[in-house]
Amino acid sequence: SDAVPFYGEHQAGIVTPAQDRLHFVSFDVTTEKKAELAELLQEWTAAAARMTQGGEAGAFGAVGGIPEAPPDDTGEALGLPASGLTLTVGFGESLFDDRFGLAARRPAALAPLPKFPGDALLPEISGGDICVQACAHDPQVAVHAIRNLARIGFGRVSVRWSQLGFGRTSSTSRAQATPRNLMGFKDGTNNLKLEDAKLLREQLWVAPGDGQDWMAGGSYLVTRKIRMMIETWDRTSLLEQEQIFGRNKGEGAPLGKKAEFDPIDFVAKDAAGEPVVKADAHVRLAHPSSNGGAHLLRRGYNYVDGSDGLGRLDAGLFFMAYQRDPRRQFVPVQLSLARKDSLNEYIKHVSSGLFACPGGVKDAGDYWGRALF
Length: 373
Ligand code: HEM
Known about the structure:
Elements: E1 21-29, H1 34-52, E2 86-92, E3 130-136, H2 139-152, E4 157-168, H3 197-203, E5 219-228, H4 230-234, H5 238-245, H6 282-286, E6 297-298, E7 301-307, E8 313-323, H7 330-340, E9 347-357
Antiparallel strand pairs: 1-3, 1-4, 2-3, 2-9, 4-7, 5-8, 5-9, 6-8, 7-8
Bound molecules: protoporphyrin IX containing FE (HEM).
Protoporphyrin IX containing FE binds at residues 181, 183, 185-191, 224, 226, 228, 245, 247, 264, 282-283, 286-288, 296, 316-317, 319, 330, 333-334, 337, 347.
Domain Dyp-type peroxidase N-terminal: 11-166
Function: Involved in the recovery of exogenous heme iron. Extracts iron from heme while preserving the protoporphyrin ring intact.
Cofactor: heme b
């Protein structure tokens, strides 16, 4: 079957080879009762365990309940396989204010991200108390899962914002071919991958002793909705496009090299004495060697939200990256990119989120966030 196991040491949907489709949602908690929040997380976990295995959200399903009640599954995934569905939960900084007595449990690593140069963030599509990332090979299956979680949450949470994505922009396993983003470049070549066991331990998973014990085996997720100025990009020369990333467009090879996975040469100079990979090239600025060894596990998706009323495509990259500590990983990398990246002329960050994704659900008696209650 194409079902991804739901229970385990880590949540699925992080190192799981990236599926093709995304429905990401951020909720605000509306109940003021901690017990109601815990109850909801239990109900959500049970529904997630069923849906990721190809089942319906509730025991009676779309048509098996009493006719006088709304069905406990919405029905649009009836007959569809599990489609590699993963559901990954994360808790935002705002959940740890005084409402639920959780302030003392807030990990230091969940500190609000700084404002980066060029940020054009819209608060109504940023942040949130709880996020759920649904990834699947079939968009109908991903949408079904989020829709049913929102339905179950009625009266206790409300949807703050959500985002659909298609076409993964990263590979998270060496068994996957590198996909392309909407700028036409291979994306995910130098990503952290499932097979990098040692780096995953050092750079991805929170270890016991890192801070809050409830986060052990978990990871921090940064989301950034990054709009691309597609029409401007499409009028830019191939040479300039390649210099912006520091890789060629066909193979994805580092400039001056032949094959995609050849190591990047940051020292080589051209005939004019200029670095072959420019000082403001994206891969130079984002590379671990420029950031004190910091890696990210990128897991983003392309998005197109139609057009913007001015005839321009409303499109870009819904960037998602997992890491052990954003203060040492995403923040310094993004600071450097925001200041110097030659890509900035063609992109705009319009939404931002930071979520603490706890370790995996162990078994049917465990639930999302149990260690917090
Ligand atoms: C590498 C595209 C935003 C971090 C790359 C590559 C491309 C790319 C084409 C080269 C292939 C690869 O190794 O994956 C983009 C686009 C972006 C974007 C189109 C915005 C629309 C970001 C942001 C960050 C980031 C916001 C983090 C703050 C990285 C890292 C690498 C990379 C860490 C690998 C560098 C290396 O080790 O060689 N990106 N990226 N990117 N990007 Fe981005």
